């Protein structure tokens, strides 16, 4: 119960934070979508079973980028960038890169690029390891609720807060992206 209050309060605070740097796409202080991690690389990582920590996302490079949905995206290789540009909707995370469980709860909150899952060919991100636990309790049901909520949320200002500033994320990443 206390965590649910925290999540709802977090969603409210982040929802009032103002517009993101790049429109509706979640962009944090890095200035990149998905905090500078490579959106295409997720689809080549070995996905772990529900309840297990996923492999860390692959940092993009600041010199290999593309523009999409009002944001700059970084990639680990030119091949990944070209694959993204050929079909950006395939690789871009759901809900403009915001926390999928936050959308379930009715808010646009940051997402940690290392807390991910691909479901039916779509990339979903979440904010903290604890939230991943709630997400995992009913992934298909949560996706259904989030899709219903997204209609009302999509036009609202994107979050511009940092997922790295949340202490629950300590240890969920090795380095900040993109690689300079």
Q: Can you offer a commentary on this structure?
A:
This protein is globular. Helix content is 31%, strand content 14%. It has one domain. By secondary structure, the protein is an alpha+beta fold. It has a two-stranded antiparallel ribbon with strand order 1-2. A two-stranded antiparallel ribbon has the order 3-4.
Strand-helix topology:
Layout: H1 2-15, E1 61-68, E2 71-75, H2 78-86, H3 88-91, H4 100-104, E3 112-119, E4 122-126, H5 129-137, H6 139-153
Antiparallel strand pairs: 1-2, 3-4
Number of domains: 1
- Structural class of the helices, strands and pairings? alpha+beta
Number of strands: 4
Main-sheet strand order equals: 1-2
State the end-to-end distance.
42 Å
Q: Quote the beta fraction.
A: 5-15%
What share of the residues lie within helices? 25-40%
What is the 3D shape?
A: globular
Most strands sheet: 2 strands, antiparallel
User: With helices defined by DSSP (H or I, 4 residues minimum), what is the helix count?
Assistant: 6
Q: Rg to the nearest angstrom?
A: 15 Å
Strand and helix order: HEEHHHEEHH
Given as residue ranges, the uncertain stretches (5+ residues, pLDDT < 50) are 1-23
On the 0 to 100 scale, the average pLDDT is 87
What is this entry, summarized?
By secondary structure, the chain is of the alpha+beta class.
Characteristics:
180 residues, alpha+beta, two-stranded antiparallel ribbon, two-stranded antiparallel sheet, 14% strand, disordered N terminus
């Amino acid at each position: 119960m206390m965590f649910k209050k925290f999540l709802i309060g977090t969603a409210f605070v982040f929802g009032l934070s103002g517009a993101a740097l790049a429109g509706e796409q979640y962009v944090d202080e890095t200035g990149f979508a998905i905090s500078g991690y490579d959106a295409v690389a997720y689809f080549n990582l070995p996905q772990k079973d529900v309840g297990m920590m996923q492999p860390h996302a692959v940092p993009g490079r600041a010199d290999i980028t593309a523009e999409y949905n009002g944001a700059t995206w970084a990639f680990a290789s030119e091949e990944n960038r070209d694959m993204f540009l050929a079909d950006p909707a395939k690789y871009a995370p759901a809900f403009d890169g915001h926390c999928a469980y936050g959308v379930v709860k009715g808010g646009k909150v940051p997402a940690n690029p290392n807390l991910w899952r691909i479901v039916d060919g779509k990339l979903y991100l979440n904010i903290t390891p604890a939230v991943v636990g709630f997400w995992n309790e009913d992934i298909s049901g949560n996706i259904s609720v989030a899709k219903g909520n997204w209609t009302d949320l999509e036009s609202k200002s994107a979050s511009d807060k940092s997922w790295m500033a949340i202490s629950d994320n300590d240890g969920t990443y090795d380095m900040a992206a993109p690689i300079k």
